Amino acid sequence: MQKTFEALASTPRRKILAYLSEAELNAGEIAARFDMSKPAVSQHLSILENAGLIASEKRGQFVYYRMIPENLVNTLNSYVQEVCPVSRPLKRESAELSGKSDRQSKGDRPEPPSAAGDAV
């Protein structure tokens, strides 16, 4: 998660993600949209790729980039669940349910849900 937020901390990298949100672009097409050197754009692309936010594919002499929206959504969702006070009890209940399903598979009877757990 840390790599994702470090990658998103940069305005050029957020712009690159916006450009890749609807289309695949090669490195040259991305660089043409910025007033910076191609090596600088390449560094930004590398950071985004290392964070798992974009993927690259070499086709002939060009490298094409595309966004991986699932990774961004999952990272942001995990972050929200960590900091959101509403999500904490739900995550705790989920962990408990996971433990209950382990007991069920061993033949134990599940515990009935508590009244406090029903009032979410």
UniProtKB/TrEMBL annotation:
Gene3D superfamilies: Winged helix-like DNA-binding domain superfamily/Winged helix DNA-binding domain
Statement: the UniProt record of this protein carries the keyword Transferase: no
Region listing for Disordered, in residue ranges: 90-120
Residues of the HTH arsR-type domain: 1-87
Keywords, in A-Z order: DNA-binding, Transcription, Transcription regulation
Cleavable signal peptide: none
Source species, domain of life: Bacteria
Extent of Basic and acidic residues compositional bias: 90-111
NCBIfam families associated with the record: HTH_metalloreg
Name of the protein described by the UniProt record: Transcriptional regulator
